[in-house]
Structure formats: C-alpha cells, structure tokens
Amino acid sequence: MKQATARVLDHFEDVRPASPPPVEPKVVPKVKVSGKNKRQVVTAALLLMTCALAVVSQYAAVAVQAKTVNQLRDDLTKEKNALDRLRVDVNRLKSLERVETMAVTKLGMQAPTYDKVLAISAVNGTAKTGASPAVDGTHQGAQKSGEERAQAAVKEAEEAPVGDNPFVAAVTRLFHRITFGML
Fold first, then answer.
1. Which among 150, 164, 160 is positioned nearest to 121, based on CA atoms?
2. What ranges make up the beta strands (E) of the chain?
3. Fewer CB within 10 Å: C terminus or N terminus of the chain?
4. 128 DSSP β-pair partners
5. At what angle do helices 166-178 and 146-159 cross, to 10 degrees?
6. Family, per the entry (predicted)?
7. Cβ proximity of 181 and 153 under 8 Å
8. Cα-flanking dihedrals φ and ψ of residue 87, to 5°?
9. Residue 123: which pLDDT band, with cuts at 50, 70 and 90?
C-alpha cells in the first residue's frame, strides 16, 4: 500500500503575500466637447474677467478722486484760515484810532478845528459860515470824535428841509440813514 504523502510546504510560501491579480486601468470615457462649446466657455470667461477688471478700475478711480477731494478740502481749509487772518489784519489796520494815530504821528497831520465850516441849506441855497464847536454847544478846547461827527451829520440831514412832498422827504431821509449822511 502506498502511503499518502502530503506535500511539503516551504514556510516562506505562507509568509509571502500573494500577488494581487493584475488590475486593468479604468477607462474614463472621453466627453466630446464641440468647438462651439469651447468658444462659448472661453468667451464667457473673458467676459467675466473684463467685467471684474472694469469694477476694479472703477474702484481705483473712485479712490483717486476721493484722495483729490480730501486734498482740495485741506487746501480750502488752509485758505479759509489764511483769509480769516487777513481779515483780522485788515480790521486792525483800518481802525479809526490807528489811522488817526498814524496821521498825527507819522504824517504830521492835525485834527480839524471846525473854524471854517460852511453849512449849505438845500431849500433856499443860503450858506452859514463860521460854525464852530462853541456854536454846537461844546467848549472850544474839546474836539469831536468820529462817532459824534457822524451823529451830528445824521441829525443835520434829518433837520434839513427836503421840499414840500412828504414822500420825497421820507425817501431822502431813508437814503441819508442808509448811507450815514454821505449823500
């Protein structure tokens, strides 16, 4: 009788992994894209990029204009401040006290004495001469200030006859008040 013998296994066969069966690569079917579709996609992409570029350029233009506006506002503020300083200087230089002081000290002028004042009446054309501060009720040594002289001119204009027509008289007095007796 024959004895059955078992096959002898090499112990390395058990340890070695079995090689996987060969895998065939998966084939992805190609999607056919027509030339018309490609052109539409490219055109859409270009249109989208153009729109994005236009928006970005508009934002850049707005930023530049905003910077210019801010610079102009700063310049305007500086010019307004300079104008205010100049107005203060003009008011200081135009003050009557300063002008009178400069006229007396630097130019050697004298204040008026009111000796030779000629008052002309508008109605009958007569003239009064020799009006002096003594006639007006002030004493000889005092001199009138600018305000006192302006008030006296307005008072004389109100007292001056302007004719028989009351409307003309009212209009004339109004213009004398508006122009501080300069007309």
1. 160
2. 117-120, 127-131
3. N
4. 119
5. 170
6. Belongs to the FtsL family.
7. yes
8. -65, -40
9. low
Q: Which residues contact 23 (CB under 8 A, 6 or more apart)?
A: none
CB-CB neighbours of 151 under 10 Å: 14
pLDDT class of 146 with cuts at 50, 70, 90: low
Count, residues in the chain: 183
Neighbours of 173 (CB within 10 A): 15
Query: What are the percentages of helix, strand and coil residues in the chain, rounded to 5?
Result: 55, 5, 40
Could you tell me if 136 and 115 are in contact, meaning their C-beta atoms sit under 8 angstroms apart?
A: no
Mean pLDDT rounded to a whole number for the chain: 76
90/156 Cα distance (integer angstroms) = 32
* Residue type at position 135: V
Alpha-carbon distance of 179 to 183, in angstroms, equals 7
- Read off the tokens for 25: 């690569």
Q: How many CB atoms lie within 10 A of CB 103?
A: 13
